[in-house]
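Researcher: Structure for this, please.
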Amino acid sequence: MKLGKHIFKVGGWTAVSRILGFVRDVLIANVLGAGRLSDIFLAAFKLPNLFRDLLGEGALSAVFVPMFAQQRKGDENAAGRFANNFFSWLMAVLLGITIIGLIAMPIIIWILAPGFADDPGKMQMTVEIGRWLFLYLIFICGSAFLGSILNAFSEFALVASMPVLFNLFSIGALVLAMRLNAETGTLYILSAAVVLSGVVQMSVLWGRLRARKFGLRLMRPKWNGQIRTAFRRLGVGLVGSGFYQLNIIIGTMVASFQAGAVTWLFYSDRMVQLPFAIIGLAAGTVLLTSISNALAEKNMTRVYVQQNAAMRQSLMLTLPCMAGLIALAKPIMQFLFEHGAWTHESTLAVAAAIMIQALVLPVMTTSQIYSKTLYAAQDVKTPVRTSVIGLIVSSGLYLGLFAFIGYLAIPVGIVVGGYVKNLLLLRECRKRDLFRILPGTKRAVAGFAVLSAVLAVGIWFVPIDNIFKLFAAIGMYGILYLPCAWIINKSSK
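Model: Predicted structure, token format:
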């Protein structure tokens, strides 16, 4: 499998999705502002996102893809039966979770955002919007499973393009709400569009599997040795994914006690997650399949080569993004978001969070390489242990520092917890001889870091007083960096 080609495809579609997501966020900022309505929608939307990550794109794919790859090496028909049974169990579980979630939504919202209880109307509306959005769960998790099967066939592009549909539906809903001057009704229009996008995504992926003659179908779930093994591993993986999501929930709970903080942290996280999703998640998605196949063939040389290639290519782009976000956080927020209901106070608050949280980008990227390697080796316990330790460190900082630095305690905790988790993952991979960094990779990463730092210091002193100068500064940064980085990467192979 051509690693770079697939990473480029996934990253390209993710970039398109994130650009549209950025447009969506700008519209949300203009329509809802950074106050009551935006807090309601963003807090309610964390629910389907939480379960999507937990059951859809987290532990589920990490457990299913290696097992499915192993099945395919022996018997293609057996792999199909395994996928059908797994899918049927997943749909049954999701249906049960959806029913429970709709009934227990008031309790869930109270746990997720206890600060909303001071405003009964805000709490009640969050419960209503949360019920609408919870219907998205079954469709997006089903889509993630169908996408895992297509990824196992090394078909990454269509799966990576699905978030584009979600963003297009959301943008359409916001434009419609603006034309109708819907005000509070915007929340209901946007929620309906989110659910409809999930239906369309699942339909498209199902149609692609049928075109591949892969007969995925719902059946009466059967409990057997394969499902028992999968669920045992999934249970362990869910604990790890759950601790990651618990980290997000604790951050939201703490932030909810400062007015506007939930929204500030949402936008800072969006800005930092943009390069990570385009680069880090793209590399991790492709590596899970490629390393699973290499380990099934017991070809460790191929594993090391793919890991180092992914590390060089991903850090070549991640390090300048980190430096650029630190240098340009304030003008980015000012000239792209400070319109309509968005205030200058919100710009400064988000920029401060971005400058801190951007420091976690390199380890978020390399953690993908280490964790996907362990998942490909069908080890789900180690990522769980590292997640638990990372959560303890992050949450301790959230709670300990909030009284002193307010909402900025959350990005500080994210950064420190991320580095701790990354070091633990690296140590385990090295101890089991599942990862080796090559000399050329060390030289390349050092070169990328120095070049990024020098250019970021230079751009810090460039006066930027309008959006055109902002884009010119970003463009100049790329023009100076990319050719030099390409030479460094080429000479280090």
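Researcher: Any notable elements?
Model: The mean pLDDT is 83. The CA atoms of residues 113 and 253 lie 5 Å apart.
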